[in-house]
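#structure-requests
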Amino acid sequence: MVDLDHKGWRIFASPLVGFLLLFLGFPILIDLVYSLSRVSFTNLRSPEIVGFGNYGEVLGDAQFWRASWFSLRFGVITAILECVLGLGLAVFLSPLIEKRSWLMAPLMLPLMVAPAMIGLMYRLVLHEFVGPVPYYLYLWFGDSPSFLNAENAFWTLVVVETLQWTPFALLLFYTAYRAIPNDVREASAIDGASARQILTAIELPLMRPTLIFTFFIRFIDGFRVFDNVYTLTGSGPGGSTTSLPIYIYEAFFKQGAIGKAIAASVILFLASFVGLYALTWLSRRGKGAAS
């Protein structure tokens, strides 16, 4: 093994550092300048510095807080549902998948479809006038709910997101579940533990790192959701399904308020960083307490 001193490590790390500074550092610096400026598509090269006015405008915008509440609620609910369903499927389908491993392939099919295409597909399927689901509900029961109106659009989006991404949680949980040594289960069964006790007292604690990791990943992905929501409902009736990325998109492209949009994206980045740091700290604290 080659023993490199500090100077040698600097030489080897310099290309990576230069790459990050060029492709990440420069855009971040430009974004920070634009977030402090009054800028539009007509004065991109000569922005007018206005200080923290864009941040004040964003924080004083009621629609920003509605979008934040939508993204937070959507991320938490979808992450919980996907983890619960994925864990249940991983546990109950484990014997079947172990014998017939090819079954995992069709279970992963929803992950192969782009979220934007999922949104377009459900937009046609659930359309109030031409969709087959409302048609057959009306034919069989004499009535059909409007899945995409202001009252039901949020929960429709939650169901669509959960159906697509539950296989992701299933895959991770199944891998973690099968990694538990069978000797542990057999020893617990010999001691008289029931299947429920083995699951709650042994298997779930051993799967805790995977559970936490999967929840974080799915929450982050749900919190920054854009494509399937935008193609299915857009900003929704009265802005009821406006997520933070959609809010930033509309401010940037539809309103031409580039400074405001970038200020909102900086706030989103800082909030995500603080939340991720807090969750990482809690995870390390939990591991320390467990050890």
